[in-house]
Amino acid sequence: MSDYTIIIADDHVMMREGIQYMINAVAGLCVIGQAGDGLELLRLLKKKRPDMVILDISMPGLRGIEAAQEIRALYPDVKVLILSMHKNEAFLSMALAAGASGYLLKEDSGEELVEAIERIRKGETYLSRKLSSEFPSAIISICRGQHSPAADRLTPRERQVLQMIAEGHTDRQISERLFISIRTVHRHRANIRTKLNLKHTADLVRYAISQGYITR
Question: In this structure, are strands 29-35 and 4-9 parallel, antiparallel, or unpaired?
């Protein structure tokens, strides 16, 4: 049987390398690439096609939820395991609705990481043991296949622009990074403010932090 191949996406180098070390120590598992943000991950997936992506939920450029949605749309055979610091049922539901097959906390052990990979490899959905005990309703929803993501009025592109605004990027930087015109950035910014009923950039940043787009 060939190795089960994995790409790791996390904006912390030490985290990526630590995860890679643990995975490569297990027979039959092999890390074939790393990415430091969601956009780099999508570029890497054009060159390499792993069996699984282990994905940090909070990354610059393109956060984990949006990256998972892109992976599901473009590469439906690639499994996604989300890594998160959030013990929050809303984040869990959003991750599963985005197409993730598993959700682990960054405080979980390396042993549980390997167990999650093996269970997902067999076609199962895996949740952190800590969440299994704290959010029984989420477990019931998963078993029934009833994922109920929190309502989000923003389009995927608007969420991406919002994240970059909150990270402190200028309109020109957003334009260059996303390959869109500054006029389009202005339109997205206006739509975001209208949909969220927020007038000032500081309010957008606070909203982005509260929703987990970025962490501070």
Answer: parallel
- b or e along 129-142 (b: 16 or more beta carbons within 10 Å of the residue's beta carbon)? eebeeebeebbebb
CATH code of the domain in which 186 resides: 1.10.10.10
Q: Which two tokens stand for residue 208?
A: 């982005």
Q: How many domains does the chain have?
A: 2
Q: By residue range, what is the domain housing residue 30?
A: 2-142
Q: In tens digits, what is the pLDDT along the chain, a chain of 216 residues? A: 689 999 999 999 999 999 999 999 999 999 999 999 988 999 999 999 999 999 998 887 778 888 998 898 899 999 999 998 888 766 777 787 788 899 999 999 999 999 999 999 998 888 888 886 666 554 435 444 544 343 357 888 898 899 898 888 999 999 999 999 999 999 999 999 888 888 888 878 877 766 667 654
52: three-class secondary structure by DSSP: strand
Query: Do 171 and 130 fall within a single domain?
Result: no
